[in-house]
Amino acid sequence: MGRGRQWRCGTGTLRVPSGEPGGVAVEIAASYGTRRRGLLGRDGIAGALLLTRCNCVHTVGMRFAIDVAYLNRELRVVDLHTLPPGRLALPRLRARHVLEAQAGAFADWGVAVGTVLTVSTPPDAA
User: Fold this and answer.
1) Which DSSP category does 116 fall into?
2) Are 69 and 111 in contact (CB under 8 A)?
3) What is the dihedral sign for C-alpha 47, 37, 35, 91?
4) DSSP 69-92
């Protein structure tokens, strides 16, 4: 579900091998506009946001702290950070996607460096 996949904006389910049994709701931001908007203007997020074709994020103008996971082409976590509002993260050269969630969510879900994630989308959105 990583290499060669054409991502589209929409929703899906994030699965972590050691995490939530039913998975976690994920929003997919694959267009320039949806990536640029990201989590700005929100007071929180119930699941996660996957920014595809992205290797750097910021929290300038955000209202809450977020967990950030940098993913490679195979959706393996290559780096993790928690960013408070008003910060700019450095780009991660090996990252092709970024997963964002409310601060503390990754620890609850069992996301760690080296974890391979799976994102499934509805058949009409794949």
Assistant:
1) B
2) yes
3) negative
4) EEE-TT-BEEEEEEE-TT-BPPP-
Residues pairing with 11 in the sheet: 27
Task: For the chain, give the percent of residues with pLDDT over 70.
Answer: 94
Pairwise CA distance, residues 5 & 25, whole Å: 19
Cα 50–chain centre separation = 3
Within 13 A of 12's CA, how many CA atoms are on the CB side? 23
Please tell me the distance from the alpha carbon of residue 32 to that of residue 16, in angstroms, as a whole number: 27
The pLDDT tens digits for 40-62 are: 888 889 999 999 999 999 999 99
Burial 38-64 (b: 16+ CB within 10 A, else e): bbeeeeebebbbbbbebbebebeebee
Which residues, 6+ apart, have CB-to-CB distance to 18 below 8 Å?
110, 115
**Residue 122, number of CB atoms within 10 A of its CB:** 10
Tell me the pTM: 0.90
Structure tokens at 83: 């960013």
